[in-house]
Design a protein that fits this description.
single chain, alpha/beta, five-stranded parallel beta sheet
């Protein structure tokens, strides 16, 4: 008998209800979408929920996005990081995107496509 693995949740750091709702609509239902609005709670939430993916909304960050993604990648090397923000914020992450530390960048306003 083969046991199925437990699906890891997707953690969202954002207070943007439209972004959170859109992520819930496009995420496979086996992956719970959990949201936190506070950057200081993110690492604890990632540990507590064993998240597989984290979506970081640049509008919710206190720390520069490049610094935060570097720290999260070092702390959680298996975590898939997705960042949502502006073209300027994407430029700040060019190196992190190129080296794979940031898996994907989503432009805001976010569309489900």
């Amino acid at each position: 008998m083969r046991l199925a693995g437990i699906a890891k949740p997707l953690m969202v750091l954002s207070s943007d209800e439209q972004l959170i709702a859109a992520l819930r609509r496009v995420t496979d239902p086996v992956h719970e979408v959990l949201a936190t609005g506070a950057e200081v709670e993110l690492s604890g939430a990632l540990l507590a929920h064993h998240a597989g993916v984290a979506v970081l909304d640049c509008a919710a960050l206190l720390t520069p996005v490049a610094t935060l993604t570097e720290r999260l990648h070092a702390q959680f090397p298996e975590l898939v990081l997705v960042v949502a923000g502006s073209i300027d914020e994407q430029a700040q992450l060019a190196e992190r995107i190129a080296d794979g530390a940031v898996h994907r960048f989503l432009h805001k306003p976010f569309s489900e496509q």
